[in-house]
Amino acid sequence: MKRVSRRAVVAAVLPALAATAGCLDATDGGGGTTEPTGTRSTTTNATTQDGTDEGDAAPARRADVDGRSVRLASARTSRAIVTLLAGTHPSVSAEADRQYVVVELEVSGDDPQQAARDACELRVDDAAIEPVSETVQPFTDGVHLAFSLPLDVDPEAVALAWVGAVETPVFPLTNSLVPSLRNPPAFEVRPFQVPARADGDEVAVSFTVANVGEGDGEFLAELGSRAVSDQGELRVEVAAGETRTVTRSVGLVPSVNEQVVVLDWGSGTMERTVAVPTTTE
């Protein structure tokens, strides 16, 4: 099985191949493909908590590997992820021709995040994909990894593998992920409306997002004033073929008399300029 880095997936796997600042708002609704060398570990099925073979739909998936207890808590697909720039600043990451598989793991032992990043691969048919290099923002106490795939991927089988020194437990994900990978959402943002002038230290803005794809999905974006270092993130659930209109209040910096309000969903952005009354006006 080939182990492919994020960069190599773009080039080799398939040709076509995202409130308060830094916090989520409330919800609406390395290169090169290489052949394996040396001795590979033995592949084993993950087990449920009672020790039986892991079924694809079973809620608890766990394994003991390299002296660690590993449990797959969740796995989902997404058109965008939130990554941490410089380790602290949340930012929406997305590409027009990509989608992601995001997994959450519970891992025992020292430095579980790095251990999981080094050991985990997403097996999509005969390709093995490494996690993205960016740090995925954690919203729970678990380990979070994201894997980047082509938007037009058409897999038969998907699984998460922890490549251990002796054994490689595999967590099957075919039933839960293949349908959504084959039918991803596709979002279009329509009028982004911001008043030309604010009356105070915040302004009401609105936009409409349409899901023109074949599957339901979550639109993820940053919204806020560029006068602050971080813009808040928001999530909007949009069913396939439907539209949602979102209205939000954006906080402004009173000392800056002209500010840019930005809506950034990773693969696209819209900006509007608003005049802000200062304390001297």
Explain this structure to me?
9% of the residues lie in helices and 47% in strands. The protein has 281 residues and is mostly beta strands. The protein has a seven-stranded mixed sheet. It has two domains: 2-182, no CATH class; 187-275, Immunoglobulin-like. Strand 13 and strand 14 form a beta hairpin. The protein is built from three helices and 21 strands. The relative contact order is 0.19. The model is unreliable at 5-40 and 48-60 (pLDDT under 50). The N and C termini lie far apart (67 Å). This is CARDB domain-containing protein. It comes from Halorubellus litoreus. Residues 34-50 have a biased composition (Low complexity). Residues 23-67 are annotated as: Disordered.
List how many beta strands DSSP finds: 21
Question: In one word, what is the shape?
Answer: elongated
Structural class: mainly beta
Describe the largest sheet.
7 strands, mixed
Helix content: under 10%
**Which parts are unreliable, with pLDDT below 50 for 5 consecutive residues or more?**
5-40, 48-60
Strand content: over 45%
Give the rounded overall mean pLDDT. 82
Give the total of domains: 2
Q: How would you write the strand order of the largest sheet?
A: 3-1-11-10-13-14-4
Number of helices, counting only DSSP H or I runs of 4 residues or more: 3
Over all CA atoms, what is the radius of gyration? 21 Å
Distance between the termini: 67 Å
String of helices and strands = EHEEEEEEEEHEEEEEHEEEEEEE
